[in-house]
TrEMBL record:
Organism: Adineta steineri
Protein name (record): Anaphase-promoting complex subunit 10
InterPro entries, alphabetized: APC10/Doc1, APC_su10/DOC_dom
GO terms under biological process: anaphase-promoting complex-dependent catabolic process; protein K11-linked ubiquitination
Residue ranges annotated for the DOC domain, each copy included: 1-53
Gene Ontology cellular component annotations, sorted alphabetically: anaphase-promoting complex
UniProt xrefs under PANTHER family: ANAPHASE-PROMOTING COMPLEX 10 (PTHR12936), ANAPHASE-PROMOTING COMPLEX SUBUNIT 10 (PTHR12936:SF0)
Keyword annotations: Ubl conjugation pathway
Organism lineage string: Eukaryota, Metazoa, Spiralia, Gnathifera, Rotifera
Matching Pfam families: ANAPC10
Length: 53
């Protein structure tokens, strides 16, 4: 399971101006629909940030 993906821009175009990433697509094999499964966190700090209001 993946909870966060970090993307690093290693080279920049036009003498180091700001880089804007417009669209990213992540492909993975589907086993179960993890969107509807509640994550089980071991710490209270992570569990408190696990849902959107």
């Amino acid at each position: 399971k993946t909870w966060m993906i970090q993307i690093a821009v290693l080279a920049n175009h036009q003498s180091g101006r700001d880089t804007h990433i417009r669209q990213i697509v992540v492909h993975s094999p589907t086993e179960t629909s993890s969107i509807f499964i509640d994550p089980k966190f071991s710490s209270i700090e992570l569990a408190s940030h696990s849902s959107c209001r």
